[in-house]
Design brief:
Layout (H helix, E strand, L loop, with lengths): L9 H12 L16 H13 L3 E8 L2 E8 L8 E6 L17 E2 L2 E3 L3 H20 L8 E6 L7 H6 L7 E4 L7 E5 L1 E10 L14 H21 L10 E9 L9 E10 L5 H17 L6 E9 L2 E2 L5 H14 L5 E4 L5 H6 L3 E4 L4 E2 L7 E3 H19 L3
Parallel strand pairs: 3-6, 3-7, 7-15, 8-14
Antiparallel strand pairs: 1-2, 2-6, 4-5, 5-17, 8-13, 9-11, 9-12, 10-11, 16-17
Length: 391
């Protein structure tokens, strides 16, 4: 490694980031007129082909594609997977041109610049650096660009049906810190059942909305108790939020039903069963105090928390690679939000998150720091050499 010299092609990296940002890849599951990932998938497949990788494109749903590139190893080294998603959130309310990809003062602006098209470009630049230096890896290097991370992760779920690696680096933005953990989430519906009646018929009506008010009061207390619990050292405490509330049909009628859609954010050690039990106990207690109180709890969806130990080989490799590039040991952090890293980890890959510096995730002004994108490309190149091995 000491005698191996490689260079990140900075003009290529900047141009590739700009070209990616200029492609509208808004997720149609979030914004109905979003075009999806087909165009950006074609662009990435072409770039990977030019870099000499074996490339495959798979359409998961109409207009929703994954792209996989493989730099095949020449020996029996470990396989490393680099990952980024190609979809973005919408552009409503943005105060800059979302697709111009303007650069000024070392920053590149646009929707997806930070989240996470610069990371896609850094992955390509790392492959180019390896190719330009004539490096032959012992293990395979996989470049994966997936659809739909911003909504339901159908891209990563489809990818994991036929792709496996020993380690994975998900290049979500982390400001060049190593993210080793993040929280999960569970979605529940709670529905209170009342009895419809004319607003004047208080003897007959049962107000599902008022009964939901009791539920909300108890959830507020639980919410405060959750954030007061001992936090996970990287993920922080668990939490919940009452996201969507719907009830009633008209102003002069007792509401016969009220529906709450809620989210429970989870940390390592919590299970769906234990979270459901906490909620069910609240409903059972309310029912025990009022014979007319009726509520139903329904599980909707879950994504598990993610955590990788500092002793994992992929973390050790990134520690050294970051130190080589940044001249300092990287910070180890956790995040409160969820990412596809949890799916890779659940599939048996030692996984970590590492991405560039920037600002404006899903915000009115989004930008990425170009120097950090170059540093990310250098780190990924070194990580591939250290993890996969070289001849």
């Amino acid at each position: 490694m000491e005698n191996l010299h490689f260079t990140i092609d900075t003009p290529y990296l900047t141009q590739t980031t700009q070209e990616l940002v200029r492609i509208n890849s808004i997720n149609p599951s979030l914004t109905p007129d979003g075009p999806g990932e087909a165009e950006i998938g074609d662009y990435l497949a072409d770039q990977l082909n030019q870099l000499g990788l074996a490339v495959s494109t798979s359409e998961i749903e109409p207009g929703r594609v994954n792209v996989l590139g493989m730099m095949q190893g020449v020996g029996d080294g470990r396989t490393l997977l680099l990952n980024a998603h190609t979809d973005t959130v919408g552009v409503e309310g943005m105060t800059i041109d979302p697709f111009e990809a303007e650069t000024r003062a070392g920053r590149l602006y646009g929707r997806g610049a930070y989240d996470m098209k610069a990371s896609l470009a850094a992955m390509l630049a790392a492959v180019k650096a390896l190719r330009d230096a004539g490096v032959e890896l012992q293990g395979d290097l996989l470049i994966t660009a997936v659809a739909d991370e911003e909504h339901s992760s159908i891209g990563t779920e489809a990818l994991l049906q036929h792709v496996h690696a020993d380690g994975a680096i998900v290049t979500e933005p982390t400001d060049l810190a190593i993210c080793r953990a993040h929280r999960g989430f569970i979605w529940y519906n709670i529905e209170t059942i009342g009895r419809a009646a004319h607003g004047s018929r208080y003897q007959e009506g049962i107000d599902a909305n008022l009964h939901m008010g009791r539920v909300l009061a108890e959830l507020d207390a639980l919410s405060q108790a959750l954030v007061a619990r001992k936090p996970h050292p990287l993920m922080g405490p668990p939490s919940l939020n009452a996201a969507i509330l719907r009830g009633g049909t008209e102003v002069s009628t007792y509401a016969d039903r009220c529906l709450l859609k809620m989210e429970r954010r989870t940390i390592a050690g919590e299970t769906e069963a234990s979270c459901r039990q906490e909620l069910q106990q609240i409903l059972d207690q309310l029912a025990s105090h009022d014979k007319d109180f009726e509520a139903l709890l329904r599980f909707i969806f879950e994504r598990r928390p993610f955590e990788v130990p500092a002793s994992a080989a992929i973390v050790q490799v990134l520690d050294r690679a970051c130190h080589d590039v940044l001249d300092t040991m990287p910070e180890h952090i956790g995040q409160t939000f969820w990412t596809d890293a949890a799916l890779f980890a659940d599939a048996g890959m030692e996984t970590v998150l590492l991405g560039p510096r920037g600002h404006g995730l899903h915000a009115a002004e989004e930008w990425v720091d170009l120097e950090s994108v170059s540093q990310l490309a250098q780190i990924l190149t070194r990580a591939a050499i250290k993890y996969c091995g070289i001849t």
